[in-house]
Amino acid sequence: MAGDTATCCDLWAKFDHPNGEILRTAHWRVVVRPKQVTLGALVLISARHVEALSALEPVEAAELPQVAAALEARLRRVFAPDKINYLALMMVDPHLHFHVLPRYAQPRTVAGYTFTDPSWGGPPRLEAPVPGDDVVGAVRAWLREPSAPDATR
Q: How far lies 54's CA from each of 9, 46, 111, 140, in Å?
């Protein structure tokens, strides 16, 4: 079961894997967060079920910065965030994962929805208002296209 993402826990269903997947490597999956509390919010998930960062195999840990660089480059190209935050709380879902939250000093409008970041300058608010499925689908489509231009212009 080490690499079986379908049966290790319910985290995969919660974050709509594989429907929301935008990036996959040997050891990591990146999915669009169904609740877009900030524009382009993602979840970076270890492919193997581990419950602590220290439990990663060396090859898994070595791949993590490469995956972060790839997802950050895509977010910057498509949505031009001012900052990118990573949260690894694992209080509810013990499977190792990071919420990747792009942050914006000014509102951004995508697919007719205006995203605001009311807690800019401080910790992100995970209970912030979120857009509907149509906007989430548009965000997912933009992020899946590796050559997508800036969607906010």
A: 19, 12, 40, 31
The residue range of the domain holding 101 is: 11-119+128-137
Residue 90, Ramachandran bin (φ over 0: left; ψ between -120 and 50: alpha; else beta): left
Number of domains in the chain: 1
Contacts of 138 (CB under 8 A, 6+ apart): 110, 111
Q: Which spans in 4-150 are helix H?
A: 11-14, 58-79, 133-144
CA angle 35, 81, 79 (to 5 degrees): 75
User: How far is it, in rounded angstroms, from Cα 99 to Cα 31?
Assistant: 10
Q: Is residue 132 part of a domain?
A: yes
* Beta strands per DSSP E along the chain: 21-24, 28-32, 42-46, 83-87, 97-103, 108-110, 113-115
Q: Is residue 6 part of a domain?
A: no
End-to-end CA distance of the chain: 44
Q: Is 0.70 surpassed by the pTM of this model?
A: yes
The stretches in the chain having pLDDT less than 70 are 1-7, 146-153
